[in-house]
Specification:
GO terms for molecular function: pyridoxal phosphate binding; transaminase activity. It contains twelve helices and eleven strands. By secondary structure, the chain is α/β, with parallel strands linked by helices. It binds pyridoxal-5'-phosphate (PLP).
C-alpha cells in the first residue's frame, strides 16, 4: 500500500494491521475444534488460555474475558456490592461508556475536572470518596487517587501502559478494564477484559458474568444456595482466539508507537503556539497530542492536516458535561432511575469553574495518530509530512 494511502487510513485501529489469515492459528484451532462456547469442554478453552497469558504479561492475579470494556466496567462496579444510587466519581473528559456503565449499574456519576494532562484531578475528590473510575486516555497513564477503597482503572485506550513504579496500568487499583473494540490498541472488533488482584471480587465477577452461576466447564450451570442474579457476558472462543492472536503482537506494537513518537519529537514543527504534550516512559501514546495556543489555531491546523490527507482528531467528543444524557439526566425508567436516587441538592459535578478550564483545554487539543505498524523509513516520511503541514498553518 502506498504511503499516502496508509497516512489517509490511520483512523484504522492499530491492531487491525495484524489481521492476517497466515497468522490466525488460534482462530483456526477454535473452528477446527468445532466448539465456540468456552464452557463446553473440560480441556482448557482458548478464552482461559487468553486469561492466563494476559495474567502473566500484565502481572494481574485474576483476569476475565468479556464482550467489551463497558461490561467490564459494570462488573467492576457491581462487584463492589454498592447501594443503588451510590456515587461514582468519573473524569469529565472520557468516552460516554464510562458514564453509561455507572448508570446502568444503578449508580450515579459525578463528573470531576481534569488536570493539564486531561486526567481526573484527584485533588478535587472529597475525603469520603468510595468509588472512582480513572481513565488512562489515549495511552497517557494517569496517577491514581490515594485512600479511595474502589479505584477502577479504565484502560480501554492504554493496554500495555505502565506506572512509573513498573506496574501495569490496570493492576494498581481495585480492578482494571480493557477494550478490544475496533478503535483500540488491539482489536477483535468487540472484546473486553477485566483484571483484579482481589480473588473474592473475581469470583463475584465470574458468577455475575455467567447468569450468577459458578459453572464448572463442561457442565450445565448450577446455582449455589448463596447465588445472586447475573447476566450473560461470557465471551466466545472465536473472539477470544482473535484477542489471543492480537495479544501476541502487543510488544511489537508498543515498540512501533514508541519509535514513531521519538521520530516525531525530532521533527517538531518549527512554529510557536503548538506545543506537544510530553510522553512519560510508561505511556502507550497512540497519538501526538498538541496543545494549541487558541481554538482558532487548532481548527486551522485540523483543516490543513485534513486537506493534506493526514488523519487527525480532536477530543471535543469526550466532554461529558455537555453530553445530553448527563446534562439532561436522561433515563429510560419512568421514575428517572438512577438519577432519582441522587442525594438532593448535591451537585453532581466537582469543578472549580463550571468546567470552563477543562473545556478550554479540550478546545485547544489536537491529536495526530501514530502508526506503529509502519517500517521506520515510512514513519520518518510520515512525521515529516505532519511537520510540513503544521508549519504551513
Ligand atoms: C472505548 C472505550 C470504552 C468502551 O469500550 P467498549 O469495549 O467499546 O465497550 C470505555 N472507556 C474508554 C475510555 C474507551 O475509550
Amino acid at each position: 500500500m502506498s504511503l499516502d494511502k496508509r497516512l489517509g487510513q490511520r483512523f484504522l485501529p492499530y491492531g487491525a494491521n495484524y489481521l492476517d489469515w497466515s497468522d490466525m492459528h488460534e482462530l483456526r484451532e477454535a473452528v477446527g475444534h468445532g466448539v465456540l462456547f468456552r464452557y463446553q469442554t473440560e480441556s482448557e478453552s482458548i478464552a482461559s488460555r487468553l486469561e492466563r497469558r494476559v495474567s502473566q504479561r500484565l502481572g494481574a492475579a485474576h483476569v476475565l474475558a468479556v464482550h467489551n470494556c463497558t461490561e467490564a466496567l459494570r462488573l467492576a462496579l457491581i462487584s463492589t456490592r454498592p447501594r443503588t444510587g451510590a456515587l461514582v466519581h468519573i473524569p469529565a473528559v472520557t468516552f460516554v461508556a464510562v458514564a453509561g456503565a455507572v448508570l446502568s449499574s444503578g449508580l450515579v456519576p459525578v463528573l470531576v475536572d481534569v488536570d493539564d494532562s486531561l486526567s481526573l484531578d484527584a485533588t478535587l475528590l472529597p475525603q469520603d470518596t468510595e468509588r472512582v473510575i480513572v481513565a488512562h486516555m489515549e495511552g497517557t497513564v494517569a496517577p491514581l487517587p490515594e485512600g479511595v477503597p474502589y479505584v477502577v482503572e479504565d484502560c480501554a485506550q492504554a493496554l500495555g501502559g505502565r506506572f512509573p513504579d513498573g506496574r501495569h496500568a490496570g493492576t494498581a487499583g481495585y480492578a482494571g478494564t480493557f477494550s478490544f473494540h475496533h478503535n483500540k490498541v488491539l482489536t477483535s472488533g468487540e472484546g473486553g477484559l477485566i483484571v483484579t488482584g482481589d480473588p473474592d471480587a473475581w469470583a463475584t465477577m465470574r458468577c455475575y458474568h455467567d447468569h450468577g452461576s459458578a459453572r464448572v466447564p463442561g457442565r450445565y450451570p448450577t446455582w449455589n444456595a448463596d447465588a445472586h442474579y447475573g447476566e450473560n457476558f461470557v465471551t466466545s472462543e472465536g473472539v477470544a482466539a482473535i484477542q489471543f492472536q492480537q495479544f501476541r503482537h502487543l510488544d511489537e506494537l508498543l515498540a512501533g508507537l514508541e519509535r514513531m513518537h521519538a521520530l516525531a519529537m525530532d521533527e517538531l514543527p518549527d512554529r510557536s503556539g503548538l506545543e506537544v504534550l510530553p510522553r512519560a516512559p510508561g505511556d502507550v501514546k497512540i497519538s501526538l497530542r498538541f496543545r494549541c495556543e487558541s481554538r482558532e489555531l487548532r481548527d486551522t491546523a485540523v483543516a490543513t492536516l485534513t486537506e493534506r490527507g493526514i488523519a487527525n482528531w480532536t477530543l471535543d467528543k469526550y466532554f461529558l458535561p455537555a453530553h445530553p444524557v448527563l446534562a439532561g439526566r436522561r433515563s429510560l425508567y419512568a421514575d428517572g432511575f438512577p438519577w432519582s436516587l441522587a442525594p438532593a441538592g448535591l451537585p453532581l459535578a466537582l469543578s472549580r469553574d463550571g468546567f470552563a478550564r477543562t473545556r478550554d483545554l479540550l478546545d485547544r487539543t489536537l491529536c495526530v495518530p501514530l502508526s506503529p505498524e509502519l517500517p521506520e523509513q515510512e514513519q520518518v516520511l510520515a512525521v515529516k509530512a505532519v511537520r510540513q503541514a503544521l508549519e504551513a498553518v
